[in-house]
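Record passed on underneath.
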Amino acid sequence: MGALSGKVVLVTGGGNGIGRDCALIAAQEGAKVVVNDLGGSLKGEDEGSAGPAESVAAEIRAAGGEAFSNSDRVTYVDAVYGMVEQAKKSFGGLHAVINPAGILRDVMFHKMTEAEWDSVIAVHMRGSFNVARATIELFREQNDGAYMFFTSTSGLFGNIGQANYGAAKMGIAGLSRIIAMEGARNNVRSNCVAPVAWTRMTQSVPIKDEAAAARRAVMAEKIRADQPARFSVAMVSPAAASVSGQIFGSSGENIILYSQPRPIETVTKEEGWTVDSIINEAIPKMAPKFFDLNRAVLPGATAPKPATAS
């Protein structure tokens, strides 16, 4: 008996990278799996292909599991409702969503076009809304449902050249938190994870020197896609029923629990603040607790620099 025996799981972006491993591991843990993947490029610029999703679904079936593929776009809510109906018709229901589907359009913000902004927001933020909206009523009605959304350290910490991606990923963290709060009474759980893994996204960063090549070789070996995938599968299983509303990280064999924004300093002036007193009193008092602009580096990883950051 696996951790997901008797459950049906939808995995978006399931044809490559972390999504692929999520689908395979979920099946190994007994789930019936809907493998969704557009089959497009990393930038989401082409029409896509049914091949990657079907290849993963076929691998699951060859190993004795149950799976079918779907190559529709998560950016269309009607398409996601179709995935849900397909799961109900083929497997009798749906119990969890793992949502790593994503694209990149890295560019410095002062050079970013509306299209580069909109396309990333559509896949990450709108896509997360769509998979949640298409499933939330079912999950509430059956008093059983779990989401694993994918945030990123590019949002939690910031990353040069990724304003579109970082903004979407911070929005996903907020969405997950509120779904968890609203879903608690109906046993609907939601968490998100910021993964660090060797995938085609990290491979897209150019190698500039031998040192960078050496770091990349270490990443490929020690920071693998199966590690955050295994964590994601665990978190949507019934064994994690008490865990909701959290922001996790996964980097190699490090599982990280992130803090969430809370007040760290309050300054009060009973007679009221003026522009002058804000500048000369409030800001200096808060300044020792300000966060700097350095990019945090997780255990076992070197923070990648976007290709367009120079």
The chain has a mean pLDDT of 90. The beta strands are 8-11, 32-36, 67-70, 96-99, 145-150, 188-196, 247-251, 254-257.
